[in-house]
Amino acid sequence: MINEHLIPSIGVITDIRRDTPDVKTFRVLGLDGKKPFEHKPGQCAMLSVPGVGEAMFSITSSPTNEEFMEFSIKKCGCLTEVLHSLEVGQQVTVRGPYGKNFPVEGEFKGKDLLFIAGGIGLAPLRSVINYVRHYRKNYGKVVIVYGARSMDDLVDINEIKTEWMNEPDFNVYLTIDRPQEGWDGHVGFVPAYVKELGLDPTMTAVLCGPPIMIKFTLQGLLELGFDKSRVYTTLELRMKCGIGKCGRCNVGDKFVCKDGPVFRMDELDELPDEY
Amino acid sequence: MIKVDRTKADGMYAAISEKMPLFIPVKSAGEVNYAPWEKGADVSLDTLKTVKSAKDFFFPQSETMMRFKAEGKKIEIIDDRKEVAPFVIFGVRGCDYRSFDILDKVFLQEPVDTYYKERRDAAVIVTMACAKPEESCFCSVFGIDSADPKGDVTCYADDKYLYFKSNTDKGAKLMEIIGAFGTEGGEKEVEAQKKNTREIMEKLPFTHLDLSVFKPENLNKLFASEEWASLSEACLGCGTCTFVCPTCQCFDIRDFKTNDGVIRFRCWDSCMYSDFTQMAAANSRTTQLQRYRQRFMHKLVYYPSQYGGTYSCVGCGRCVNKCPQRLNIVKVIKRLGDKEND
Fold first, then answer.
1. How far apart (Å, rounded) are the C-alpha atoms in residues A115 and A113?
2. CATH topology of domain A9-98
3. What is the average pLDDT across A129-147?
4. Burial class (CB in 10 A: 0-12, 13-18, 19+), B199
5. Which residues in chain A are closer than 8 Å to B257, comparing Cβ atoms?
6. Residue of A nearest to B305 (CA)
7. pLDDT-derived band of residue A2, with 50, 70 and 90 as boundaries?
8. Who's near B58: CB < 8 A, 6+ residues apart?
9. pLDDT(A135) > 70
């Protein structure tokens, strides 16, 4: 067999966790019981169910997790619908890693970090956050602002409450869109909450969530004095190959699959507004 | 240089195809396209442009990439590609020959596309010099000399003779077969023809298109041009331009369920189609203006920015001839060149 990038390997689903009504987290291992491959925080992988299709997903687990790879996946299309119907033990296909990672060994080092996520947007950030926890002394203080439609839509709230909230120099702020019985935390949209919190604009920020949340949150950050060259986000476009050849995930002369998905806001300013 | 009387051409094709498959422009059902040579084939070497370009040989319209078999929760991945045997493509014009370089940059950059590479390595390419370029031709804009293309062997033709010149080791091997059908000579005739062809090229209407505005530093300015609205207004989104284009290389990968497992295949796709960028919850290009702009920005700005300044157009003029709405890259180059060049 010729070593061909587009031919995936077999992945076995060894655990499925229901996080929210429409998000499940899948643990995937190779046939040898090990992680399918090594990756860096923010990178992605192509998962497929043969006969249904293949799509790009961000890798939710941290590279420092030596046992397994995890993907938090929202049910929103043909493939994710089928993925959500699968059972433990089912084989899928997996290939990767793809894309540029967050600069955890570069610009992030020694910095105070602000992570802002909305809904399933926490999936790619969880990889970075847990990486930062693992190499805690390499980074400054960490602030996390995470919002979802309701308390039931906060992805893997268990880890957030039992681990992140107990981490030294970690401040976690949660919010939900509308008041709900049993919720005594903050209520309101992420962009407004970010402004209310009056965050320190010297922090390096990472934004991930629905486009509308990113747009308004960025506005808020700029008002607080954040600089675009220290604000990162990830883009998501339709992909088929993952290696810059199929021609559909470009924004201007950049391919999201290989030049992204991680972009700095000042880099995005240089590109046409078509994403 | 070997000179072969055209009356002996069929014998020569037969001799080549005995050694390896020979693909050559053949007239069938009123259209000329590459087809395997066989006895009695209506070979049309003098046709300037096959309807479909030569990209099919390396990047076929559709191909099986792999198969899957599932049993219970288990999956088996089957890659049963066979080694590609050497084959000859005869009659590739200078424009189509340049398109191979453009495709190479995409498919052979790391990670290498092995489906493409296997076929590319197996091909022996006989290019065909143009003697009578036509009105829709503008290859010279992209620095292509259609009078003297390269390839493994170059073939020049006049009414009576075919002249062959070898350019590579692969070509020299093929010349061993060709040599048996001709005699040495023809340099003078070929030189005269080159001169004549270049003179014709110089007078063609699109030969002096100005590309100077199309450079990476103008990306945002060109993207924001108000001209796209009127340029794209008549576009039907039929995708004909992308299918006849020798450099369009966008593809789709899809699964097809059969009674004997799943086939994952790759096929040509088109940025002109509304579902090209459709995701479950969003679409980055929802209007035909955006899709039209993408195609030309890719060819004239994005591709050159990604691959060292080379334009992803070879001036073959197929889109000029085939667009049902008479839209084409020449109009885009002219309009944006005029409006955005100050």
1. 7
2. Elongation Factor Tu (Ef-tu); domain 3 (2.40.30)
3. 97
4. exposed
5. 51
6. A253
7. low
8. B100, B103, B107, B116, B119, B120, B123
9. yes
Beta bridge partners of B78: B67
Domain ranges in chain B are: 2-63+78-203, 216-339
> Model's pTM, two decimal places?
0.94
Residue A95 contacts residue A242 (beta carbons within 8 Å): yes
Regions of chain B with pLDDT less than 70: 341-342
Residues B41-100: pLDDT tens digits? 999 999 999 999 999 999 999 999 999 999 999 999 999 999 999 999 999 999 999 999
Indicate the length of chain A as a whole number. 275
Q: Within a 13 Å sphere around the CA of B91, how many CA atoms are in the beta-carbon half?
A: 23
Structure tokens at B138: 């503008």
Selecting from A51, A89, A246 the residue whose C-beta is nearest the C-beta of B257 gives A51
Q: Looking at chain A, which residues constitute the CATH 3.40.50.80 domain(s)?
A: 113-234
Which residues of chain B does A251 touch, with a Cβ-Cβ cutoff of 8 Å?
284
- Write down the pLDDT at residue A211: 85
| A-chain residue closest to B248, CA distance | A247
| Beta carbons of B255 and A50 less than 8 Å apart | yes
HEC string of chain B equals CEEEEHHHHHHHHHHHHHHCCEEEEEEECCEEEEEECCCCCCECCCCCCCCCCHHHHCCCCEEEEEEEEEECCEEEEECCCCCCCCEEEEEEEHHHHHHHHHHHHHHCCCCCCHHHHHHHHHEEEEEECCCCCCCCCCHHHHCCCCCCCCCCEEEEECCCEEEEEECCHHHHHHHHHHHCCEEECCHHHHHHHHHHHHHHHHHCCCCCCCCCCCCHHHHHHHHCCCHHHHHHCCCCCCCHHHHHCCCCCCEEEEEEEECCEEEEEEEECCCCCCCCCECCCCECCCCHHHHHHHHHHHHHHHHHHHCCCCCCCCCCCHHHHHCCCCCCHHHHHHHHHHHCCC
The shortest CB-CB distance from B305 to any of A9, A244, A253 is to: A253
Start-to-end Cα distance in chain B: 49
- Summarize pLDDT for A206-228 with one digit per residue, the tens: 999 988 899 999 999 999 999 99
**Which one of A90, A93, A270 has the shortest CB-CB distance to B77?**
A93
Parts of chain A belonging to CATH 2.40.30.10 = 9-98
**What class, spelled out in words, does domain A113-234 have in CATH?**
alpha beta
Residue of chain A whose Cα is closest to the Cα of B262: A51
ipTM of the complex: 0.92
Percent residues over pLDDT 70 in chain A: 99
